[in-house]
């Protein structure tokens, strides 16, 4: 018997999803647990597994199109099953190719299909584009971009990447324009620098969610910022000692998350949420760690961070970040944070402020550890300074409370042995 596969609700705030790509086509055999499609939500692009065995009889949402949660995504059943009655009962309208019985295909050619019009991509670019090749023959591309390029017959080595660090992502393949040799010359015609060009790419579900959430946060939560410098000499020595005797390698970010968790335990008023009619002081400590992905930013949550050692935190953070970038992270692993940390030190950023991720009352911004002259014992000597910035929602946290939290955090980072007590 045929079964309807509905558009899943993959996050707590998801109202619609976009099909980033289908791993199966109509007529293909599908097994329970196999990846059926990639669904773009407001938080991430995730692989969606089939719950049924059978044959893919109907695709309800074409690649690149959006559909509300609980709308018909697909139908899986036995070969040749008629799904029209099932679609009618579900209140669905056929918008994509439907598998017909073999006998029907022999009798007549399929009727013209009505497909939804994809979101427009407005482009103004030269008809001839210069090829772009990756250095050293290496291709920096997402798995989805590689798959899409293979399906379209596009040489991915000729695609310019617009993702992080020049990585080739899905939109680059979608908007790739092949280069054309000059007539009779066998040479590639380069684009003249004087030609204006642009490409308008529709916002992804994640970018829409980021815009909506952070705009609401910035203009509804009265932000104020507290900044402090930390002497990291002892932290550098402690990290070197830990890594020399430990099988796993810890990062400065791991040490910072550990210090943050310990500081939150001492200052519970910072570990709080604004929920409208009340301030919720959380007894548990779940630290969200901002991770950059192709489509934007996700915040996986390290739960009960104060109960875990530095090495354990490092292993868990690495695993969450890797699965977030590979679209393997689960929705529940990005929910429930009571405090957030955003670290841009690896990008060479010394100092910045972050917008609070609601309903949290605070977020910590972490910069680069920089060698700089400092005064110690009345003398100017080389030092390693880390700049921290705490963004606070004044409805939840007052200046004195935030300052006390930063003082404790500074003391722990400057004296790492205290984190082990």
How is the secondary structure organized here?
Elements: E1 3-6, E2 16-22, E3 29-30, E4 35-40, E5 45-49, E6 54-59, E7 66-68, E8 72-77, H1 84-89, H2 102-107, E9 122-124, H3 143-152, H4 170-174, E10 198-200, H5 205-220, E11 223-231, H6 233-245, H7 252-266, E12 272-274, E13 279-281, E14 287-289, E15 291-293, E16 296-298, E17 301-302, H8 310-325, E18 339-343, E19 362-366, E20 370-376, E21 379-393, H9 399-414
Parallel strand pairs: 14-18, 18-19
Antiparallel strand pairs: 1-8, 2-4, 2-7, 3-6, 4-5, 6-8, 9-10, 11-21, 12-13, 14-17, 15-16, 19-21, 20-21
Shape: elongated
CATH topological fold name of the largest domain = Chloramphenicol Acetyltransferase
Helix and strand pattern: EEEEEEEEHHEHHEHEHHEEEEEEHEEEEH
CATH class of the largest domain: Alpha Beta
Q: Please, what is the oligomeric state? A: single chain
Query: What count of structural domains?
Result: 3
Give the tally of β-strands. 21
- Mean pLDDT metric: 83
User: What is the C-alpha radius of gyration, as a whole number of Å?
Assistant: 26 Å
Name the beta content range. Answer: 15-25%
Intertermini distance: 61 Å
The CATH architecture of the largest domain? 2-Layer Sandwich
Low-pLDDT parts are: 92-136, 188-192
Our count of helices gives: 9
Strand count, sense and barrel status of the largest sheet are: 7 strands, mixed
Structural class, from helix and strand content?
alpha+beta
Q: Which superfamily, in CATH terms, is the homologous superfamily of the largest domain?
A: Chloramphenicol acetyltransferase-like domain
Helix content: 10-25%
């Amino acid at each position: 018997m045929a079964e309807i596969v509905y558009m899943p609700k993959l996050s707590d705030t998801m109202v619609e999803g976009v099909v980033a790509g289908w791993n199966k086509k109509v007529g293909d055999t599908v097994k329970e647990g196999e990846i059926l499609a990639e669904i773009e939500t407001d938080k991430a692009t995730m692989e969606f597994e089939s719950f049924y065995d059978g044959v893919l009889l109907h695709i309800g949402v074409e690649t690149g199109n959006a559909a509300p949660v609980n709308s018909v995504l697909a139908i899986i059943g036995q070969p040749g099953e008629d799904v029209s009655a099932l679609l009618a009962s579900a209140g669905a309208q056929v918008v994509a190719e439907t598998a017909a019985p073999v006998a029907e295909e022999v009798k007549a050619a399929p009727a013209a299909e009505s497909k939804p019009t994809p979101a427009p991509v407005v482009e103004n670019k030269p008809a001839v584009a210069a090829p772009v090749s990756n250095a050293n023959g290496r291709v920096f591309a997402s798995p989805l971009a590689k798959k899409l390029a293979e399906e379209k017959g596009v040489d991915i080595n000729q695609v310019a990447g617009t993702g992080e660090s020049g990585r080739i992502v899905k939109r680059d393949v979608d908007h790739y324009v092949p280069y054309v040799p000059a007539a009779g010359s066998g040479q590639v015609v380069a684009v003249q620098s004087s030609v204006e060009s642009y490409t308008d790419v529709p916002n992804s579900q994640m970018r829409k969610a980021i815009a909506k959430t952070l705009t609401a946060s910035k203009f509804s939560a009265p932000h104020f910022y507290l900044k402090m410098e930390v002497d990291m000499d002892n932290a550098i020595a402690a990290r070197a000692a830990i890594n020399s005797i430990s099988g796993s390698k810890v990062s400065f970010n791991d040490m910072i998350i550990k210090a943050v968790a310990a500081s939150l335990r001492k200052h519970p008023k910072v570990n709080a949420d604004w929920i409208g009619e009340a301030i919720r002081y959380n007894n548990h400590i779940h630290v969200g760690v901002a991770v950059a992905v192709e489509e934007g930013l996700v915040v996986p949550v390290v739960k009960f961070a104060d109960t875990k050692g530095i090495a354990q935190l490092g292993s868990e953070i690495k695993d969450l970040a890797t699965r977030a970038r590979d679209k393997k992270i689960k929705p529940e692993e990005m929910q429930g944070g009571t405090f957030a940390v955003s670290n841009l030190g690896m990008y060479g950023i010394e100092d910045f402020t972050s917008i609070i991720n609601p309903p949290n009352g605070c977020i910590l911004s972490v910069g680069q550890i920089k060698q700089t002259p400092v005064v110690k014992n009345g003398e100017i000597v080389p030092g390693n300074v880390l700049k921290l910035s705490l963004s606070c929602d004044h409805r939840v946290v007052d200046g004195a409370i935030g300052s006390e939290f930063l003082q404790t955090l500074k003391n722990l980072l400057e004296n790492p042995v205290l984190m082990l007590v």
